[in-house]
Amino acid sequence: MSSPHVSGPSQPAVSMAGWLEGTVALVTGAGGGIGAAIARQLAAASASVAVVDRDADSADATVNAIVATGGRAVAIVADISRPEQRRQLVGDVVAGLGEVDILVNNAADHGVRHRFLDVTEAEWERILATNLTATAFLAQAVAPGMARRGGGAIVNLAAIQAALPVPTYASYVATKGGIISLTRALAVELSPHGIRVNAIAPGAIASGSTVDALAASGAPTGSAPTLLGRMGTVEEVANACVFLASDAASFVTGTMLVVDGGRSLSREPDPFATFGTLTRADTSTIPASPGGRDTTRPGKAPGGRR
Fold this sequence. Notes:
The protein is of the alpha/beta class.
């Protein structure tokens, strides 16, 4: 199968060196993909970075890449879906680097891609814990320190799938929609303390998870369904994150920055559009609704609407 068409921006990369001088950033899910790119770019902008991942080798690899270019970073192994590890995490960052000025909630559990009808409560709760609950309570953990120092920046990673859902992704999509609403709510509540809260919604990014999902689906990947005609790079998402975390975005809060090359506006077919879609033939597998009422009569979709 061919690889996604990826090329970087035609103009030279903009140097962000010094933008975040004297700050401490905490990035979750920073062992690879978008998270690693964000950690590297924050360090390139002169922040000291806590690289958080549940895999020690992956976290170390990101730290080594940062240190090799003259940056400062520490690796912290934590499973943020677990409350006790979240509570310890912030203390470890403060002990190793100092109080957190920038929080980037990037870690995400995509889950196993299958029909919503096959999602278990355990799976739903696990994805919710990593993607949404951890985002909320890590923000809660760092906000008091930010408030004491007069402000800070929180950047949450959402996804364009919150507005453009694809089949077999219901649990993940629900959490990303929740992150967008949470971002707005926190912006309102934390603004009196000088804390800005924003979200980034990446889409059509050639990260490992997207490439793997395309390969698993058997979808063609020769060209990207974006207005710019290519897949985005993880570095382009990282650039957006540095902007939102910096004083360059000092009058920006409660917003969602879409980084998708115009995918949200493109009329090109979605490569995932038919992957795992519930067909009429599948309705025979839908159990009767509580009370025994038949919701699967021919020509009628569950709930009575098609």
